[in-house]
Amino acid sequence: MSGFKTTVESTYAQLSDIDGLKVSGENLYVIKDSVTGYLHATSGAISAQSSTYKEYTSAYIPVSPGKTYIIQSWATPSAAGQSWLAYQFFTSESSEGKIGSRTDKYGSDSNSGVETTAEGMERLTYKVVAPDTAQYLRVSSRLFEDGYIMVEQATMASEYAISYKDADAQISSVRTIAEQN
């Protein structure tokens, strides 16, 4: 089992740093800490999840003011709707700490940061700098049946990788099953 853990830990290597330039980073979106529903457009609170769109929202992700973050989601939209990705910065772990309004984009948007992958999924991407007063970030996305989210402190987007915390949870689960057998 330790060999498996070593393989996973080396696969999900730490943030690369080349001459002080953050190239790619770990996924800060932790699936096991996310909640069903989406960030309300103006209040910063969580609105109820749609059974069609299956929106999920991150926990409050700690951020560093002035640092660059890449926010991405991948999903195959249903016939009833299009993909959607939103984010909002906060000064505290509370909707009262919201900074401005939610920022969002749809898969049908003709602006940059929207592409269709070879697998037919829509990939939505933001590159943002945390405001001077920001301490946290929350991210919402329509995940439909097959979607996933990635948030990283980086200057360029990476391909999807599971967060370290989610990988550790999966390793623990496999270990428990192996020990029971």
What would your notes on this structure say?
The protein is of the alpha+beta class and 181 residues long. 15% of the residues lie in helices and 35% in strands. It has two helices and 14 strands, in the order H-E-E-E-E-E-E-E-E-E-E-E-E-E-E-H. It has helices at residues 2-11, 164-180, and strands at 17-18, 21-22, 35-36, 38-39, 46-47, 55-57, 61-62, 68-75, 84-90, 98-106, 114-116, 122-129, 136-142, 148-153. The strands form four sheets. Strands 3, 6, 7, 9, 10 and 13 form a six-stranded antiparallel beta sheet that branches. Strands 11-12-8-14 form a four-stranded antiparallel beta sheet, with no helix packed on it. Strands 1-2 form a two-stranded antiparallel ribbon. Helix 1 runs antiparallel to helix 2. The longest helix is centred in the last third of the chain and has 17 residues, at 164-180. It is globular and about 50 Å long. Mean pLDDT is 84; it is low at 1-22.
Helix and strand arrangement:
Layout: H1 2-11, E1 17-18, E2 21-22, E3 35-36, E4 38-39, E5 46-47, E6 55-57, E7 61-62, E8 68-75, E9 84-90, E10 98-106, E11 114-116, E12 122-129, E13 136-142, E14 148-153, H2 164-180
Helix pairs in contact: 1-2
In short:
The chain has 181 residues and is α+β, with helices and mostly antiparallel strands. The protein is built from 2 helices and 14 strands, in the order αββββββββββββββα.
